[in-house]
């Protein structure tokens, strides 16, 4: 437990920590083969279970994903509360608590997917949360578990712990110095993988990367977390080294990049999400290095709130792309501090 | 004379008006064939003539171009006080008055080149100035003049009036709308030509263009000026039409371009002259259209003072390119108003 108490100290680089547990009900076909009425029953079963529980100390809202508008569905994905795939499944639902740090998907690839998220480097705490949710659900349902293989899942890659632990890291200097490709190779050796912020196959917007365990079998949850934790710590160290290297050898270059990014963000009248993320990443780096006086929390919020769905949600529903780009620029100008 | 009094009203588009008169001394070989001691005599002759004159109401400084440093020579060119070619000629000199609106080159391509420059659209006034200088010199020397061909010059393209009249125009909207190439063709029909700001073969930095008469023969000075004047007035009208067209049909696009330019200029920590000119051009356009609150005079000054030689001169001599780019960024930040 020794290292746990220091977890929280890496917020300059670690945006968030997440745990996902995949679970399936014993004796019930996987969602892809599940008849609709049984899928509905499953949603009710989970909801009732969460409703009567008091141990988690929080209430859950049920959202039936097939019944909400396109933008609301987009918002759920952008907030990482559901997966992009969930929307396409019949009877798919998600249960979300008030803080939006627990979400439980029903009828995704697996019957149940428990997701917990915390700001900063808090893998162990996040795991405890997910574990607590798992315990609550186990009071109501029997999860399919094989003595040798562990939890059974629709996709074999999740068999075992059914757990995916991940950290979202801000790696602008490793990106600037073209270190990401080398990192991919190294991470694979540790059974880890690196992705963009919206999961598999997505681009690394704003130099944000998710690093997570590839394997779910052959190690305990705690071992998997310790492994990810240790490797993430190495990456954080490397990112920091590269930051100071650029700062020491090429300060003007770095300052110029950061202030130009700030200049465009605080003056543009129209900007898309991709460019915003790229520039916010630089300002975030500048703030971390105390080269520019901007609040990291504000930058983190902006990185979330300028996403198309969330932004449209804030400013009243479906917007055209042109309007959204204009409103995004206004939104950023409102929240960035003038220098 | 009717239109003259309105000349001064176009400073949003006309940066400056210039007149150059090429003259050669009767019975003396052109500079390319002139022995050194005679070239020196010529310089003294012109200087004495200017020194004893009182009609121009200004004093002249003599600069022997071969004796000054590289940067000082560069500054003279950037300020349009000498031509880029003058530096390479032995015994080349320039006489400059205090306001720097009269400069007289000796031993350039011709024995004497009188140059006058005024801010804004003041071709006629500028011509009167050049004419007055011409009169002063004619009191001391006999200029080679042929009854049929007019003033004789080293290059046949200058024979006749020996005059090149030009206006420097800021044409960002015609540039944005890709109208410059069409304009080149039209101008040729009027015996006019269009160039970048440092003369033949130079790039149009900052959307600034020099328009001048191609022909010097077959028309009087006043006719040549009237022709340039009328065509320039048409171009000014077109530029203004295009400005309002972009403004009316695509205001956000234009505002975005202008404010991003301002954002970069007011935040960059390193910037070269070419990019500076491009961005200053947009801010100048924004100021003209009252989309941004920046002083046109300041922008005009910046467009001159960020040139490599002038900037180095202001900040103390020869600078490396890296230092110059850094100092240029500082200089621009100091003079631009924060929004």
TrEMBL record, chains A, B:
<feature type="binding site">
    <location>
        <position position="80"/>
    </location>
    <ligand>
        <name>ATP</name>
    </ligand>
</feature>
<keyword id="KW-0418">Kinase</keyword>
<dbReference type="InterPro" id="IPR000749">
    <property type="entry name" value="ATP-guanido_PTrfase"/>
</dbReference>
<feature type="short sequence motif" description="RDXXRA motif of the pArg binding pocket involved in allosteric regulation">
    <location>
        <begin position="324"/>
        <end position="329"/>
    </location>
</feature>
<feature type="binding site">
    <location>
        <begin position="164"/>
        <end position="168"/>
    </location>
    <ligand>
        <name>ATP</name>
    </ligand>
</feature>
<dbReference type="Pfam" id="PF00217">
    <property type="entry name" value="ATP-gua_Ptrans"/>
</dbReference>
<dbReference type="GO" id="GO:0004111">
    <property type="term" value="F:creatine kinase activity"/>
</dbReference>
<feature type="domain" description="Phosphagen kinase C-terminal">
    <location>
        <begin position="13"/>
        <end position="242"/>
    </location>
</feature>
<dbReference type="GO" id="GO:1990424">
    <property type="term" value="F:protein arginine kinase activity"/>
</dbReference>
<dbReference type="GO" id="GO:0046314">
    <property type="term" value="P:phosphocreatine biosynthetic process"/>
</dbReference>
<feature type="binding site">
    <location>
        <position position="113"/>
    </location>
    <ligand>
        <name>ATP</name>
    </ligand>
</feature>
<feature type="binding site">
    <location>
        <begin position="16"/>
        <end position="20"/>
    </location>
    <ligand>
        <name>ATP</name>
    </ligand>
</feature>
<comment type="similarity">
    <text>Belongs to the ATP:guanido phosphotransferase family.</text>
</comment>
<dbReference type="InterPro" id="IPR022415">
    <property type="entry name" value="ATP-guanido_PTrfase_AS"/>
</dbReference>
<dbReference type="InterPro" id="IPR023660">
    <property type="entry name" value="Arg_Kinase"/>
</dbReference>
<dbReference type="GO" id="GO:0005524">
    <property type="term" value="F:ATP binding"/>
</dbReference>
<keyword id="KW-0067">ATP-binding</keyword>
<feature type="binding site">
    <location>
        <begin position="195"/>
        <end position="200"/>
    </location>
    <ligand>
        <name>ATP</name>
    </ligand>
</feature>
<keyword id="KW-0021">Allosteric enzyme</keyword>
<keyword id="KW-0808">Transferase</keyword>
<protein>
    <recommendedName>
        <fullName>Protein-arginine kinase</fullName>
        <ecNumber>2.7.14.1</ecNumber>
    </recommendedName>
</protein>
<comment type="function">
    <text>Catalyzes the specific phosphorylation of arginine residues in proteins.</text>
</comment>
<keyword id="KW-0547">Nucleotide-binding</keyword>
<dbReference type="InterPro" id="IPR014746">
    <property type="entry name" value="Gln_synth/guanido_kin_cat_dom"/>
</dbReference>
<dbReference type="GO" id="GO:0005615">
    <property type="term" value="C:extracellular space"/>
</dbReference>
<dbReference type="InterPro" id="IPR022414">
    <property type="entry name" value="ATP-guanido_PTrfase_cat"/>
</dbReference>
